[in-house]
Amino acid sequence: MTKAAQELRIAQPALSKTIARLEEDIGVPLFDRQGGRIRLNSFGKAFMDKVEKALALLDEGIKEVADMSGLEQGSIHLATSTLDRLSDALGEFLALHPEVQFKITQASIEEMAHLLESGEVDMCFTPLPIDRPDISAKIVLKEEVYLAVPQGHRFAGRRGIRLSELAEEPFIGYKEELPFQKMNDLFFQEAGIAPSFVCRVDEPAAIASLVRAGLGVALVSNCGGANSALHLLHIESPACQRNFQVVWHEKRYLSLAARKFRDFLIDYFANMAK
Question: Domains in the chain and their CATH numbers?
Answer without folding.
Answer: 2-47 (1.10.10.10), 72-274 (3.40.190.290)
